[in-house]
Structure to design on (587 residues):
């Protein structure tokens, strides 16, 4: 069972973060070497991200986070960099599913008031994000039951290993 | 109340009375991976412990993104995929066969099917009336293992087309115009569904271009009905028996409606570094181009190559512009040779690359230098896309690519007689 409360500091990044920003195609030769690939996470967009990210940090984006390709390596390397959850204003469809399938929570809320370094707490079961710096609570909604069951199992493959099928989740 | 194409296909394949926003578990008729997503998908498939793909003969492993491979790690990924193909009975589409989405259209996808690929441009199959959609490796691994996956039935944006395109305006200009209108997230979670009297004027190759780029507006699918044009195309691929007609119900409910008069469109270009940054080619001013790239799953078909060959025949390319041509598949290359286009392009000064993705995603075969500008017929121009975050990629139709290769700067093809 994955955690349902995440606490960490915000690392902010702007709108339209593409999967080419997260892992540029030029590193495709490293895709079977995930630890090495992870060191290049977001390096064109947020130089020094991999070194800076601390276990538990929360990545905070704007609109249309994760647009572009279907490479599931994108949420994988973000998770490997230590990020515990992603908060965004909106998220591209394939990235959203991929992240949940990798057990990485992506929550949708109004991120415009969050600044870099803010101390955040996400309460998944209540659908709430608390910004301790601003003393603010943001609503982040809830996922469809099948998706939250997949997230709770730690991802889609662990879910399938546990259930052998998808059907029990709907 | 009637159903949209998305609702019809997913209802039929899930055996439920599916409507938009329902979550259904649907049969998947065709599953594929490519060489940058395939190794992870195979590892995840192995982790499920299910052991054997549900339908190996409809599970395709494509080697197209790094084909032939430029690096030992990628070559080793190919070795891993071939080995899995041998053990599992999945179909291997090896180096030189071409880009996955083109081959799916040539040989595999049928109207009314659910097609899932570990590649975002799997929406391309929508041009044939198949619910094609891209998914990540975990989802594709599950589709491989179970022959099924879960889907949220998308709401559909109804796009009504009237009139017909006036050459040299291409269906690429239609989709670039629409993405400019909708924005890069304007159709997130939705299907784009094309209908209206203008649809019949678009051939399946024209439609594949449009469906291919539906994902650039965030869409989950880009669907055309299956009509006489679909039959023509399937017959031209010697699979007329795969034809089934498929139309949305007349009283289907759409989340929004857009009308586009095809005659009113002009050649447009998507400027760096987002696909929705669209301007008419004629209004760009003097943009000098170092490299023109004709190819990819968007515009590397025989129709595209034939159009460019006709425009550049008897001319020489601009001296300071490199021209790269990558046919989308072996079949496209063969037809281009038979029809004499390859000779025309080589005389023009073009470099012919093997069938595959070539420089599209910046792995090899046409990586840009610092500060360089490329005009490409592909579908993405994100920063770093063609291998260099300090380069600039513009997207346009094959006609605009031909005009640009002649002049050396971005040129409205209507200026070239
Ligand atoms: S041609 Fe480009 S967009 Fe198409 S599948 Fe290959 S890399 Fe992706």
């Amino acid at each position: 069972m994955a955690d349902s409360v995440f606490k960490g500091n915000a690392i902010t990044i702007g709108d339209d973060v593409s999967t080419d920003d997260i892992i540029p195609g030029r590193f495709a030769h490293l895709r079977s070497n995930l630890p090495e690939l992870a060191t290049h996470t977001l390096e064109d967009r947020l130089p020094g991200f991999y070194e800076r990210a601390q276990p538990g940090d929360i990545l905070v984006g704007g609109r249309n986070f994760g647009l572009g390709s279907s490479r599931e390596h994108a949420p994988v390397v973000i998770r490997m960099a230590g990020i515990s959850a992603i908060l965004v204003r909106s998220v591209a469809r394939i990235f959203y599913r991929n992240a949940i399938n990798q057990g990485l929570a992506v929550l949708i809320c109004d991120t415009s008031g969050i600044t870099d370094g803010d101390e955040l707490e996400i309460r998944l079961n209540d659908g709430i994000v608390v910004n301790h710096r601003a003393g603010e609570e943001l609503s982040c909604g809830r996922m469809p039951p099948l998706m939250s069951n997949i997230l709770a199992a730690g991802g889609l493959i662990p879910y399938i290993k546990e259930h052998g099928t998808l059907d029990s989740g709907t | 109340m009637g159903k949209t194409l998305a609702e019809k296909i997913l209802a039929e394949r899930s055996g439920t009375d599916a409507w938009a926003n329902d979550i259904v578990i649907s049969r998947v008729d065709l599953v594929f991976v490519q060489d940058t997503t395939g190794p992870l998908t195979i590892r995840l498939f192995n982790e499920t412990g299910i052991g054997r793909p549900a339908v190996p003969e409809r599970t395709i492993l494509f080697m197209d993104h790094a084909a032939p491979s430029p690096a030992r790690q990628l070559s080793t990924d190919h070795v891993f995929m071939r080995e899995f193909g041998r053990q599992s009975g999945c179909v291997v589409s090896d180096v030189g066969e071409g880009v996955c989405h083109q081959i799916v259209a040539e040989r595999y996808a049928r109207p009314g099917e659910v097609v899932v690929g570990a590649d975002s441009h799997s929406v391309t199959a929508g041009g044939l009336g198949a619910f094609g959609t891209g998914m990540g490796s975990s989802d594709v691994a599950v589709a491989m293992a179970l022959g099924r996956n879960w889907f949220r039935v998308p709401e559909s944006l109804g796009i009504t087309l009237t009139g017909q395109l006036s050459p040299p305006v291409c269906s690429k200009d239609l989709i670039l115009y629409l993405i400019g209108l909708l924005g890069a997230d304007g159709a997130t979670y939705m299907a784009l569904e094309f209908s209206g009297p203008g649809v019949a004027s678009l051939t399946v190759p024209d439609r594949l271009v449009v469906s291919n780029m539906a994902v650039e507006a965030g869409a989950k699918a880009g669907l055309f009905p299956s009509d006489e044009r679909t039959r023509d195309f399937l017959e031209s691929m010697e699979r007329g028996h795969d034809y089934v007609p498929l139309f949305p119900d007349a009283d289907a409910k759409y989340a929004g409606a857009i009308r586009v008069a095809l005659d009113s469109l002009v050649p447009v270009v998507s400027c760096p570094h987002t696909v929705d940054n669209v301007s008419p080619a004629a209004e760009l001013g003097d943009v000098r181009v170092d490299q023109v790239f004709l190819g990819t799953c968007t515009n590397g078909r025989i129709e595209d190559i034939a159009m460019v060959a006709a425009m550049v025949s008897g001319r020489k390319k601009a001296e300071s512009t490199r021209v790269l041509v990558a046919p989308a598949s072996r079949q496209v290359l063969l037809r281009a040779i038979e029809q004499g286009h390859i000779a025309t392009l080589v005389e023009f000064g073009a470099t012919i690359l093997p069938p595959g993705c070539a420089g599209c995603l910046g792995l090899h075969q046409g990586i840009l230098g610092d500060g360089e500008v490329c005009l490409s017929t592909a579908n993405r121009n994100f920063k770093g896309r063609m291998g260099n975050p300090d380069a600039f990629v513009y997207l346009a139709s094959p006609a605009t690519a031909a005009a640009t290769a002649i002049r050396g700067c971005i040129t409205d093809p209507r200026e070239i007689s």
